[in-house]
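chain below, 455 aa
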Amino acid sequence: MANFMVIFGAALLLNCLVTFRSSGMWKKMTGGSQNADKEDAASRAKWESLLWKYLIVYLLATLSDWLQGPYVYALYSLYGYSQYDIAVLFVAGYGSSMVFGSFVGGMADWGGRRLFVVIFALVYAASCVTRHFKNFHILMLGRLLGGIATSLLFSVFEAWLIRSHTDAGLKNFIGKSLSWATYGNSVIAILAGLVANEATKALPMIAIKEEALYMGGYLNPSDFALFALVLCGLLVMSLWEENYGDSSSTKPDEGIRSQDILLCGAISSLFEGSLYIFVFMWTPALRDDGEELPFGLIFSTFMVCCMAGSSMFSILIEHIKGERLAVGIFAFSAAAMGFIALSSNQTLKFIAMNCFELTVGMYWPVMGTLKGAIVPESKRAAIYNLYRIPINFIVLFSLLTSLTPAQSFTLNFIMLSVGAVLQTILMMRREKHGLMESDSATSDLEAAERLLIQE
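prediction:
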């Protein structure tokens, strides 16, 4: 059996090293910083204020999402539903996200992103409440509401962030803000796992109305999530300003951009689809002869590697343009998936899985930056949701087929390899048409680091 604790320790050490290397403290120690002028100091204060307003709300939203995930299947099983019934409920959730996601983002663009974050909190809170009922139709309603909320979570928040940066004249800091969001989300995931684990033990599951309404046990994490969602909704109303899709943002290169938008959507769908398959299949891939695995330790290792990846992004983007960095991310992630598919050694497979998680940590900020530059502001949330439709198709395919772990990871290898090719095409197109921002990625991050270390 693999020594999971040793690998976790190595991942934690790597995370500490790269996080320190990406920090302003490193610049101070190496003498790489310069005194920022008054304008930089003012920009820094504005950026930090915007970043923290975003993170407080966004991380409460992701906390609610992470709290619920681990115990949904166990709850349905405890209610006595068969594996087929549970599969139907899960398929309904992803199907809901696919259907409603096709238009709910467009509604957020004209109705207001802040308003739809409030709607996200209300809809997801309602989904949490439905879990207390041992009724298939009520649980199905909860899954449908959860699918709508997921569509909003993966589109409206980022759309608000990018528009707010643009309006504040802080567009240069979008990549840095997305890196912070990725790092914070990984920390929240670990904390949520610990809280949910303890919450299930705090109060045993009891029937308020026999065979109808329950509380406690596996429902406790959903109740904690409900509290986080109420707080999220209240804070977004007090901290965020409303913003909308900018209908005047059409540019003369719209024809070129439309093809780039399609490429960007295909690329993101391939990576995120492979990520979902990875989430479904890593357990059977690691389990040898049905042995019990230290799931909490494994999950924590994955999240620590994801944190390290987000810090690596901050380092690498200073020297490599985002489009080129994305090619490397796809190529490295494809190699990791290929190794998992071919290897029969548990330790080597787990190391390869953590290498993939490193690329996940780099993927979110780099792809967020690329989408911020490619997707028009007027339709940002709508297009972000349309990007998720192929992802949900991939998820439904993986749920409705009986692929073995080796076959699943081979499929991931193929998808990520195709993604690397498409990203190379996108990079060459943007370079040809002069849309790669020259060396702006480097200068932007240097400016961000300079602001971070200025007192």
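Strands lie at 206-209, 213-215. The first strand starts at residue 206 and ends at 209.
thats it, cya
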